[in-house]
Amino acid sequence: MQFVVNEENAGTRLDQYLASNTDFSRSKITSLIKDALIVVNSNKVKAGYIIKNGDIIDVNYEEKEIKANPEKMDLDIVYEDDDVIVVNKANGVVVHPAAGNYTGTLVNGLLYHSKNLSDINGEFRPGIVHRIDADTTGLLMVAKNNKAHEILAKELEEKKTYRVYYALVWGVINNETGTVDAPIGRDPHDRKKMAVTPDNSKKAVTHFRVIERYKNATLIELKLETGRTHQIRVHMKYIGHPVVNDPVYSGKKLFDNTGQCLHAKELGFIHPTTKEYMKFDSELPACFTNIQEILRQE
């Protein structure tokens, strides 16, 4: 498994970067680094090594007994050709296998659907150029070969990919538009969560626009300048308007267990081969609109 550090991830500790980009625990990563099974630019380093733009990280370890297997699954394929698949991910579907969760993921379904997926991100993430949370619905682009993957990933890094999210958030937002510019890192009190924090954090910027107001909530459109883990959910909580039905960050009673009202609605990118600009839109799912209708009628 190999990673090439981009400018966005430069300045992070090696062990923190790998904890966010592999399925290994922090203790496992530390052990592999000590045993020189993880090296940077072919050199042995320490877990606290600060990675730099262009660094090549090699992870020379695979848990061979576990692999992602094809599984028949109902996938909502919005578009497909020889280079790319655009899929509308359903609620509750994890994007790729991880520790303790090796079946029922989008990757399992994609492996059944197509024999041609890029392998740049390793066995557990074939074709996956970017991801969204399990309880977030919406559009994802998937690469069917390595050349397409490299081009699409570079578009993402250079912020050329167009992504628009819709969210229901608690409380009435009075401003028509707004921007949240607040760094995000691991929550110092709960390592499984993210938070706006000055410690080991990275720049995160979210723009939003109000679409519709209800008595106790607001429907907003969001665009991201950066792509931090849980960025929208953390930023909206930070400004006092957490995402409705978010089981982790909202702090309010849930309507049901269908996941947060957050949907990756629009996706646009330059096709890796034809160079044609392609843009896709998707309908809000029932798990979102059902709650929206309840809030609208209050």
Quaternary state reads single chain
- Which CATH architecture of the largest domain would you pick? 2-Layer Sandwich
Instruction: Count helical runs.
Output: 6
N-end to C-end Cα span:
52 Å
Overall number of domains: 3
Give the SSE map.
Elements: E1 2-4, H1 14-21, H2 26-34, E2 38-40, E3 56-59, E4 77-80, E5 84-89, H3 106-113, E6 137-143, H4 146-157, E7 162-170, E8 177-181, E9 184-187, E10 190-196, E11 205-213, E12 217-224, H5 231-238, E13 262-270, E14 277-281, H6 286-297
Parallel strand pairs: 6-13
Antiparallel strand pairs: 1-3, 2-3, 4-5, 5-6, 7-12, 7-13, 8-11, 9-10, 11-12, 13-14
Question: Which key terms come to mind for this protein?
Answer:
Structural Genomics Hypothetical 15.5 Kd Protein In mrcA-pckA Intergenic Region, Chain A; Pseudouridine synthase; 298 residues; 28% strand; 3 domains; 19% helix; alpha+beta; 14 strands; nine-stranded mixed beta sheet; three-stranded antiparallel beta sheet
